[in-house]
Each structure stands twice: as structure tokens, then as C-alpha cells.
Amino acid sequence: xxxxxxxxxxxxxxxxxxxxxxxxxxxxxxxxxxxxxxxxxxxxxxxxxxxxxxxxxxxxxxxxxxxxxxxxxxxxxxxxxxxxxxxxxxxxxxxxxxxxxxxxxxxxxxxxxxxxxxxxxxxxxxxxxxxxxxxxxxxxxxxxxxxxxxxxxxxxxxxxxxxxxxxxxxxxxxxxxxxxxxxxxxxxxxxxxxxxxxxxxxxxxxxxxxxxxxxxxxxxxxxxxxxxxxxxxxxxxxxxxxxxxxxxxxxxxxxxxxxxxxxxxxxxxxxxxxxxxxxxxx
Length: 282
Known about the structure:
alpha/beta; Alpha-Beta Plaits; four-stranded antiparallel β-sheet; 11 strands
């Protein structure tokens, strides 16, 4: 296995300490402002993984263990969650802030992302709290608060250059995913439709909810359209409702994710940006 170490702040002695745990030396592979090191021929064991988990997290170092042959060119689709993954905010929380209800909605959002609350129920409850809000609040959130996560632009440029198709699949709303698809030049987008009547949110979602199962079905459907297998997809997410689609992917990436997602993902990026997948698949 190749062990890839990345950090925005770690000193070289911290990197060497981690490499020593794996019984190998670390070679600097930093490029384009990304600080990364590779350790070749690492023998993985449960004991070593436990050591890496503890040592790397405390030193704010991200690590990935992958077969040495893994390359970006092995993949044909990048599927991304939107809220708190491709972008830094949870859009529904920011919409709720326009109603003075952000704490109530954020609490439900967090419980759902931790896997403590069924997603359909959580979304229905959150959207209901938005009833009566002027639809102009959506544009305000998009204009004033929506920002790409660190490294998103660099990651998207690299995957597009590699000929990889892009899918934005979200438990959020089409108002945002459609605009992101256009502005970023993404190939596919799928999310929920907020009902708006006479310029006001009704507190309801139109049609079926894009939950964990639907996210998985969307990844599988797009893969079928592209005539590829889910094993040729990279899937990125942060919450429990991303786990199903991550489970069918060739590479699952947890980005600044909840513990339940970090534990189950193939790779966890806790400290570096989304472009942290590039040294891993160099």
C-alpha cells in the first residue's frame, strides 16, 4: 500500500514520526501549493490503522492508504454532496436564518448528518419551518453566503482535465444545485424541489425526497448512462445520508465529515481541501 500524508501546518518531524509508525520513509511529493508526502510499500494492519488514526488526527495530518496502482485516470465519474462538502454551508440552515430559525433548523440538520434522525423526517421538519418565507431569501443565501469549500476549484479543474464526468447529488435544493451546475460546468445535478407559490415557500418539497437511497440510485443511474461501473466512481460526502452512495463507489472520500462517515470512508480529508484527492491519486 501507499501511505499518503497531507497537512496544511505539520512540520517535517511530525511527518517523519508518522512514517516511522509505518516503518518506512516519507518522500516529499508536494506540488501546486499542496503539502504532501508518500510512503511506499506499507503493510496495513488493524494495529497500524489505529495508530495512524490517533497520531494523524492529533497532528492535523490527513492520511490515505491505497493500492500503489490507484490513479485519477482509473475513475470516470466524480459524485459530490453539496452542503458542507462542495460548499461550506448548509443552505437550509442559512435560509432558516432569514426566518430567525437557524438554531432550531441547524439542530435537526446536525442530528440527521450524524445519523441520529431519519433523513426524510428531518428534511420534512426543517422545510416546514420555512413556510411563509419570501422566496427571495434563496437568492440572498446564494449571493451572500454560498462559498466553495477550500480546494474545490483546483479539484474540479483536475478531474475535468482527466476527462472525468461530474455529478452534484444533494439532499438540498435545486435552486442551489442548478446554479452550481451552471456556474461550475458540472455534467449532472440532482436534488430536492422546494415548493414556491406566489413568491412564498409553502413549507413543502415537491415530489420524492433525495435521501440516502436516492443518492445511491442517482450514482448508479449516472454510471449506467456513462456505461461504467460504480467502482469507477469517486464519491465525496460528509453526512450519514451520503454513506449509501459512498458504499458503492470505487473510492469514497469523507470531507470534514461526521465521525460515522469518517469511520466508514475509504479516505478522510479532515484538514486539507477537496484538492487533497489529487496527491492521493497522482
